[in-house]
């Protein structure tokens, strides 16, 4: 894995050009830790231009390794998953590679892909998907495993597996109906329909839809804005909020409230909680350390 650190940028397009240049010497995925006032924001960049960021065995492995790395990085506060390839987020599974797999291996690969989505979903910190372009099949499933999704106006997305006589196998049949009206989710999956960013926003699949810019990174820039909003807040509190929500939505209200109580209890002895109260009293900006 090739790790890069990018200094705080001036102007909205500078980081994009820098990371694009650096990505030319990396593998299928870049791992960038932003610096300066953006310290704490990590960016994963898909970088398979010829294959439209299709999910190959190597890309899945790189993602798993990078997610394992960030899980134990105490300085990481927010993760953005984006593409370095203009016009595409991820076109889904690498069908050329899939065609060469022995039948016995296909099930193992899909199971591994499903495990990857769970890894994203269970990452302790917030994960934002920046959909600047095509997000089909497994590409959309990656975004569904994230906490927040931002789409550009020219993005196209869909769970299109039905066209290949298969079903979404990396969580799509479960996460989409939990995100939107199950009947609408069924229609989208049964028809293998592709929709644009505006429609996805109207249905509640994405949190924001933004007009695309000339650099084709509008969704990434909006995702960066959101990450900067999250960054000043208590990191342990944000992690506990994610845990309480993720676990709470799977159970009844009474059990969910018990989960919330347990998560809150873990915050009471933290130094950050005391710092937050002290900073409020002194009318200053808190200095949270994640302790």
Binned, the helix content reads 40-55%
Biggest sheet: strand arrangement = 1-2-3-4-6-8-11
**SS-derived structural category:** alpha/beta
Beta-strand fraction estimate? 15-25%
What is the topological layout?
Blueprint lengths: L2 E4 L7 H10 L5 E6 L6 E6 L10 H15 L6 E6 L4 E3 L4 H6 L2 H19 L5 E5 L2 E3 L1 H8 L2 E5 L3 E3 L13 H8 L2 H10 L3 E2 H7 L4 E3 L7 H13 L4 H14 L4 H15 L3 H12 L9
Parallel strand pairs: 1-2, 3-4, 4-6, 5-7, 6-8, 7-9, 8-11
Antiparallel strand pairs: 2-3, 9-10
Helix pairs in contact: 2-4, 4-5, 5-6, 6-7, 10-11
What would you note in describing this structure?
It is a single chain. This protein is α/β, with parallel strands linked by helices and 291 residues long. Helices cover 47% and strands 16% of the residues. The chain contains twelve helices and eleven strands. The strands form two sheets. It has a seven-stranded mixed sheet, with helices on both faces. A four-stranded mixed sheet has the order 5-7-9-10. The radius of gyration is 19 Å and the shape is globular. The chain starts with a strand and ends in a 9-residue tail after the last helix. The model is unreliable at 1-26 (pLDDT under 50).
């Amino acid at each position: 894995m090739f790790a890069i650190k990018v200094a705080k940028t001036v102007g909205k397009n500078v980081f994009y050009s820098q990371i694009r240049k650096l990505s030319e010497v990396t593998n299928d995925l870049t791992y960038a830790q932003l610096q300066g006032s953006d310290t704490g924001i990590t960016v994963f960049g898909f970088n398979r231009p010829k294959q439209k960021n299709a999910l190959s065995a190597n890309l899945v492995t790189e993602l798993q390794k990078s997610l394992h790395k960030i899980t134990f990085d105490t300085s990481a506060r927010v993760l953005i998953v984006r593409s370095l390839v203009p016009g595409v987020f991820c076109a889904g599974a690498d069908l050329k590679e899939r065609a060469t797999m022995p039948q016995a291996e296909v099930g193992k690969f899909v199971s591994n892909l499903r495990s990857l989505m769970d890894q994203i979903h269970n990452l302790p910190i917030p994960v934002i998907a920046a959909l600047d372009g095509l997000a089909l099949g497994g590409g959309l499933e990656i975004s569904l495993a994230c906490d927040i999704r931002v789409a550009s106006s020219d993005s196209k997305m869909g769970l299109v597996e039905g066209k290949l006589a298969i079903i979404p196998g990396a969580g799509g049949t479960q996460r989409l109906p939990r995100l939107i009206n199950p009947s609408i989710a069924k229609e989208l999956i049964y028809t293998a329909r592709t929709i644009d960013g505006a429609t996805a926003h109207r249905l509640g699949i994405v949190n924001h839809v933004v007009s695309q810019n000339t650099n084709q990174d509008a969704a990434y820039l909006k995702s960066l804005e959101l990450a900067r909003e999250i960054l000043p807040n208590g990191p342990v509190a944000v992690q506990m909020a994610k845990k309480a929500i993720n676990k709470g939505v799977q159970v009844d209200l009474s059990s969910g409230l018990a989960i919330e109580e347990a998560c809150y209890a873990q915050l009471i002895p933290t130094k950050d909680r005391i710092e937050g109260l002290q900073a409020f009293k002194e009318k200053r900006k808190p200095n949270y350390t994640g302790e």
